[in-house]
Amino acid sequence: MVQVTKGSIGTKGPRVTANLSIPGRYLVMIPGTRLKGVSRKIEDDKERQRLKKLLNRLPTPEDAGLIVRTAAGGSRRSSFVRDLKALLVSWEELQTAIREKPAPCCVYREPDLVERVVRDWLTEDVDRIIIDERTHFERIRDLAGRISRRARGRVYLYEGEAPVFEHYGVERQIGEAFRRTVQLKSGGAIVLDETEALRSEEHTS
Q: Highest mean pLDDT range out of 13-22, 42-51, 188-197?
């Protein structure tokens, strides 16, 4: 069994690995290991120690390890318990699919973009998520509500006449990001151009 880590591009096939992982909001489950750890991006020593203690108290399955994700910083034990329960359900469904489905087949698939946005990006640093489509708005609010009431309250529906990207100036910022010349506040400018690859060679006589 392998996991696709990067999809195929053109004539280049997908990149796969035998090191499986199932990401949740606060935890990543790694089947087939006994590994336990905390993301290196959480640098505060006291917080790392707190998270390690919480991790050690969780009812970890014997055939899977757990890594605490960066988004878990400052989270309570109840959040970890809830996240672990969801991961265990996914792991059980995956194992059932392995036993019952004939190979080759897909036994696990990551959630779609809507769910991944809530899971991975709705952190304390995010003030608002603005959606211009009511169906997605209702779904994202429900998903955010599983995290907390506060998270649910940060989801807003945009109903303006102008396209949402245009209203908030996103189209303009994207256009500026891809411009060849970038104007600086100092009055100068940076010009970006493609060039041939540069290399150095040693010549011996």
A: 42-51
